[in-house]
């Protein structure tokens, strides 16, 4: 099998679960974009610069992404973070994105380095 046919086969196989998720009766959080985001602290991100999945600002971020953003906004968040609004063939877990502290509490907005799947998040206080 040629490399392009193998890639097409992997792409088709990856699309099947997404299509069934779209047509199922599950909630909008089970959309193709967010399937791997359901437990982000466990599966989706690495943390750096003093952040952990228990850091309040990280918990706020995931609460907003998972519970307040529309599916369209979740795709925009993914694009901001990774440069693409779609998960790769290997799934979001293959990206290994990093949420890194960007200094102390400040008026700065989060920034990202899409080439490295890294978001710089200021350490906002409560």
UniProtKB/TrEMBL annotation:
Keywords: Ligase, Transferase, Ubl conjugation pathway. Residues 1-18 have a biased composition (Low complexity). The active site is at 115 (glycyl thioester intermediate). GO terms for molecular function: ligase activity; ubiquitin protein ligase activity. It comes from Tetrabaena socialis. This is HECT-type E3 ubiquitin transferase. It comes from the Eukaryota. Coiled coil: none annotated. InterPro entries: E3A/B/C-like (IPR044611), HECT_dom (IPR000569), Hect_E3_ubiquitin_ligase (IPR035983). It holds the Pfam family HECT. Residues 1-33 are annotated as: Disordered. Its EC number is 2.3.2.26. Residues 47-126 form the HECT domain. It catalyses: S-ubiquitinyl-[E2 ubiquitin-conjugating enzyme]-L-cysteine + [acceptor protein]-L-lysine = [E2 ubiquitin-conjugating enzyme]-L-cysteine + N(6)-ubiquitinyl-[acceptor protein]-L-lysine.
């Amino acid at each position: 099998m040629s490399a392009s046919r193998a890639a097409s086969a992997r792409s088709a196989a990856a699309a099947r679960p997404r299509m069934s998720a779209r047509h199922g009766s599950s909630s909008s959080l089970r959309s193709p974009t967010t399937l791997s985001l359901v437990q982000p602290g466990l599966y989706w991100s690495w943390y750096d610069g003093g952040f952990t999945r228990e850091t309040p600002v990280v918990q706020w971020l995931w609460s907003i992404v998972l519970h307040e953003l529309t599916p369209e906004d979740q795709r925009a968040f993914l694009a901001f973070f990774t440069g693409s609004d779609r998960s790769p063939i290997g799934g979001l877990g293959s990206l290994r994105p990093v949420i890194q502290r960007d200094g102390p509490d400040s008026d700065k907005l989060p920034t990202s380095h899409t080439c490295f799947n890294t978001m710089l998040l200021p350490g906002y206080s409560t």
